[in-house]
Specification:
mainly alpha, globular
Length: about 325
């Protein structure tokens, strides 16, 4: 019990540290120094440059072995598993909801902040090995969010064709496409190339959390408590899915850092991409912001507990 509480405290401390950085973004939004509008413009920098850099660096930091290759494949399986669990819940809970808002709640249930929240936390709690596994989980996350997730948000009258090129050139997929061969071939990059990649990767935690703080500041908190579906989404996303994930993966033979990384990713709060997809497909961005912000704040309490449970079972 003492070890469990110690693990909770360790994870909680790291989550609080991240949210204190987010508070900087909140203050910046309130004072007009760096607003949510500016934050959305910065999203592309984080999405297309910083995210691939941290993925590539994580692959470069791992030594190739049969164990790490097996862990890579298991991380892929774990990532697919908890996303499928989310899809299952959305079918049960939101199929009869208003069509204009159902897509937002379904997306919010299935897709978490695997990149912007899980990677910084994995770096703090698990080190390079944890980042490596969480980076691998970004592959099913990106693939599914840009196919299944986009389909949830897309209005039926928008007859948009599936774009394979756009999927393949997704930053998360590109980061793995570059980093994976380097990992498999154990290529050692010269310092003149590795250093810039590392510097860009270091931007991930502070930049992502400051941006997140602006979203918190812009959310309409007064009306959050009037929609029960927000609470239902929170219950599923940050409690039920992580618990099902940790128990199921443990029964499948997952353990160690791999198990904790999968559970950490599964327990991440609703993805900030919920707002971006809502804007892209003409959905209610205000509702998307409220859902994302509310679940993210609650995750301060739930993520440490889920991580500690995984650490106790690893």
């Amino acid at each position: 019990m003492q070890l469990f509480l110690s693990n909770v405290l360790t994870a909680f401390t790291q989550v609080v540290i991240l949210f204190l950085v987010a508070m900087v973004g909140l203050v910046c939004h309130k004072t007009g120094i760096y607003t949510e509008k500016a934050s959305r413009l910065t999203t592309d920098l984080l999405f297309y440059i910083v995210a691939p850099a941290i993925i590539i660096r994580s692959f470069l930091g791992m030594e190739f072995s049969r164990d790490t290759l097996g862990g890579l494949l298991k991380a892929l399986l774990g990532g697919i598993f908890f996303h499928v669990v989310g899809m299952f819940f959305t079918k049960i809970l939101f199929n009869k909801s208003d069509k204009d808002t159902a897509g937002i709640f379904k997306y919010a249930c299935c897709y978490g902040n695997v990149g912007y929240m899980a990677l910084p936390l994995a770096q703090a709690v698990l080190g390079d090995e944890g980042i490596f596994y969480c980076s691998v989980i970004l592959v099913p996350f990106n693939f599914l969010s840009f196919t299944h997730g986009a389909g949830l948000m897309r209005k039926k009258d928008k007859n948009e064709k599936f774009n394979l090129k756009k999927l393949i050139t997704n930053p998360g997929v590109l980061g793995v496409a570059i980093g994976l061969p380097l990992f498999l071939l154990q290529v050692e990059l010269p310092e003149v190339i590795y250093a810039p990649v590392s510097y860009l990767a270091d931007l991930n935690t502070p930049l992502a959390m400051v941006m997140f703080g602006t979203y918190l500041a812009a959310a309409d908190w007064k009306t959050i408590f009037s929609d029960k579906r927000i609470f239902t989404t929170a219950l599923v996303k940050i409690i039920l899915i992580p618990l099902i994930t940790v128990l199921s993966l443990k029964l499948m033979g997952f353990g160690g850092t791999l198990l904790v990384a999968c559970v950490l990713s599964a327990s991440a709060p609703t993805a900030s991409a919920t707002v971006m997809f809502a804007a892209k497909y003409g959905r209610d961005t205000g509702l998307a912001s409220k859902v994302t912000s509310f679940i993210s704040v609650l995750s301060i309490l739930t993520m440490p507990v889920m991580i500690a449970i995984a650490q106790a079972l690893q």
